[in-house]
Specification:
The complex is a heterodimer. Chain A is built from one helix and no strands. By secondary structure, chain A is an all-alpha fold. The mean pLDDT of chain A is about 90. Chain B has a single domain, classed as Four Helix Bundle (Hemerythrin (Met), subunit A), CATH 1.20.120. Chain B is built from seven helices and two strands, in the order H-H-H-H-H-H-E-E-H. The longest helix of chain B is centred in the last third of the chain and has 47 residues. The chains are: A mainly alpha, B mainly alpha.
């Protein structure tokens, strides 16, 4: 009994789940970077007005 | 300062984890002998069991961070608790799914309501619900307190999951027993040991990255609260 397909499916799932999670963290980080950029721009606008 | 030191350790930890993954893959797929009755499908065990271990570790860290938060009321304990629960959910999901895939050819079913599987599913559902419930609370301080209590209470189930195969009759194999020790060949034990180290490193890696993102979020929230009006008053 080899059942290599099951081994492949389990192995593929492990790495798909881990990479999907890492991708979600990267997306959150990207979104936060955009927020920081927007806040910096708002700050610069205020400083220019002063 | 401590946060910056933590950030500088991330690349080193990622390299160590990547090397450990490569060694694990060699040991799992080349070095470890094929199990006589189950065949190659038994190799699922080398990432099924370590992912369950990583989830127990993650929930323990969340439990400890929850206690630390309630004692010291410092926000970084809440960040650690939240990040660890999230990663614990990922690893327990991997343990559940890989276990189910392994069960299909061996037990001839994808799922059975035996004690280990049932308690693991209950544990997963509890922590998933706790993350959802946290989001319902608006006040960040109350949210942190709520999360800490949920993580402390939820950890009660973790020893039950571990002991389920010893407390009740089950078809789940007992790998570690008090009389026989670890019932495995030395080559299999080595592959398992290295895989456990790999998943522990993977957990540490994900935790540090997730904590860093959460710190960033806190910083953005703080700046937003400060608001343009406050900034203009400077």
């Amino acid at each position: 009994m080899t059942n290599l397909w099951y081994l492949f499916a389990a192995y593929a799932f492990v790495w798909t789940a881990i990479f999907a999670y890492v991708h979600s963290i990267a997306q959150r980080q990207r979104s936060l970077a955009q927020d920081i950029k927007a806040l910096q721009e708002a700050l610069e606008t205020i400083q220019e007005r002063e | 300062m401590a946060n910056q030191e933590g950030n500088s350790r991330i690349p080193f930890l990622v390299v160590c984890t990547a090397l450990s993954v490569i060694v694990s893959l060699y040991l799992i797929f080349v070095y470890a002998p094929t199990e006589r009755t189950m065949g190659d499908v038994q190799r699922i065990f080398y990432f099924h069991m370590p992912s369950a271990w990583a989830s127990f570790l993650a929930f323990f860290v969340a439990f400890a961070a929850g206690i630390a938060y309630l004692v010291r009321w410092e926000p970084h304990w809440d960040t650690l608790e939240l990040a660890s629960v999230e990663i614990g959910l990922l690893f327990s999901m991997i343990a559940l799914v890989t276990g189910s895939i392994w069960a299909r050819p061996i037990w001839n079913t994808w799922w059975t309501w035996e004690p280990r599987l049932t308690t693991t599913l209950v544990m997963w559902l509890y922590y998933f619900a706790s993350l959802m419930l946290r989001r319902l609370v608006d006040n960040p301080e109350r949210q942190a307190r709520f999360g800490a209590v949920l993580s402390i209470v939820g950890f009660v189930n973790v020893p039950v999951v571990f002991l389920a195969i010893r407390l009740w009759r089950t078809i789940h194999p007992v790998l570690l027993s008090s009389d026989k020790g670890l019932a495995m060949e030395p080559a299999m034990l080595l592959a398992l040991g290295v895989s456990l180290v790999t998943f522990t490193l993977l957990y540490a890696c994900l935790l540090m990255i997730r904590v860093r993102v959460e710190h960033l979020r806190h910083e953005v929230d703080r700046l937003r609260e400060l608001g343009p009006r406050s900034l203009s008053n400077r």
